[in-house]
């Protein structure tokens, strides 16, 4: 599938919010947009931009399977378009590459109690991504409609969590979570790093980003588990609808040929 970037880069990448999914990434996206980072990347982008599934698959296979060229500044510029900030997966899983590609960007590390995080992550990213319905979509519908979003997300989760099965993802999740935060704290320049929890509100975030605190606006708190499940159902409906259209293109000619052959044999 040909990938067309959402836009060419016209502004510098300014913020890398590298907390793992289910740590408030949707809330962070909303907060960053409120502060003026109008194009902030999030995993939900794939719903409105399914074409980015293919280049993300290239990046995932290069990083975790050693297939192809690893992504660098040029590739991320094309993939992320005009984003001034990033959050959520897949970006958080490419934290090293993004920090190298955008060395002047500020880094935000949002952390959550590990057991609360695991409960939310297990109920969404694991359970939903590897469900029976997801199997049908990944194995049959997405190849039919030319989408790589489902397969890419599965390869990303397996690669990032050093797993080959959903159960191994569960077993490895807490250790990988802790290592992710440890490594970023170890590598990120202290003057460009903000360790942050959503409960702290606007103050520390605005001070770090040198922005004024929005007047009269509470800090956004989005229920990510609920929001993700809504998005997943939306994606599933759209994919089944697209599959019906694609099947129609094949079935109509096949039916026409069948009718023609029936008439021919009747002669």
Descriptive notes:
There is one protein chain. This protein is mainly α and about 270 residues long. The protein has one domain: 3-Layer(aba) Sandwich (Rossmann fold). Helices cover about 60% and strands about 5% of the residues. It contains eleven helices and five strands. Strands 2-3-1-4-5 form a five-stranded parallel sheet, with helices on both faces. Helix 6 packs across helix 9. The longest helix has about 45 residues. The radius of gyration is 21 Å and the shape is globular. The relative contact order is 0.15.
* CA-based gyration radius: 21 Å
Biggest sheet: strands, sense, closure? 5 strands, parallel
List the total number of helices. 11
Gap from first CA to last CA: 45 Å
Strand order of the largest sheet: 2-3-1-4-5
Low-confidence residue ranges: 1-5, 249-267
Structural class per helix/strand content? mainly alpha
Q: Do you know the CATH architecture? A: 3-Layer(aba) Sandwich
Helix content: 55-70%
Q: What name does CATH use for the topology?
A: Rossmann fold
- Tell me the name of the CATH class: Alpha Beta
The string of secondary-structure elements, in order, is: EHEHHHEHEHHHHEHH
CA-based shape: globular
Can you tell me the number of structural domains? 1
Strand runs, count: 5
CATH superfamily: P-loop containing nucleotide triphosphate hydrolases
Summed over residues and divided by their number, the pLDDT gives a mean of 84
Q: Bin the strand percentage.
A: 5-15%
């Amino acid at each position: 599938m040909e990938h067309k970037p959402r836009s060419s880069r016209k502004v510098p990448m300014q913020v890398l919010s590298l907390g793992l999914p289910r740590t408030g990434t949707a809330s962070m996206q909303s907060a960053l947009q409120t502060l003026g980072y109008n194009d902030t990347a999030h995993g939900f982008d794939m719903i409105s931009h399914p074409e980015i599934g293919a280049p993300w698959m290239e990046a995932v296979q290069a990083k975790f399977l050693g297939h192809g060229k690893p992504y660098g500044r040029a590739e991320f510029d094309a993939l992320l378009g005009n984003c001034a900030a990033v959050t959520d997966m897949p970006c958080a899983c490419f934290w090293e590459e993004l920090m190298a590609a955008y060395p002047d960007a500020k880094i935000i590390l949002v952390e959550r109690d590990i057991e609360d995080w695991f409960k939310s992550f297990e109920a969404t990213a694991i359970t939903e991504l590897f469900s029976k319905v997801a199997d049908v979509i990944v194995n049959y519908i997405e190849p039919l409609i030319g989408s790589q979003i489902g397969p890419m997300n599965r390869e990303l989760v397996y690669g990032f969590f050093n797993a080959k099965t959903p159960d191994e993802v569960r077993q490895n999740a807490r250790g990988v979570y802790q290592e992710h935060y440890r490594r970023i704290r170890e590598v990120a320049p202290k003057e460009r790093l903000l360790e942050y929890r959503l409960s702290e509100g606007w103050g520390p975030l605005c001070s770090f980003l040198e922005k004024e605190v929005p007047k009269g606006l509470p800090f956004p708190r989005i229920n990510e588990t609920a929001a993700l499940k809504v998005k997943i159902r939306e994606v599933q409906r759209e994919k089944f609808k697209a599959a019906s259209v694609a099947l129609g293109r094949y079935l109509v000619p096949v039916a026409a040929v069948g009718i023609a052959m029936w008439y021919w044999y009747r002669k």
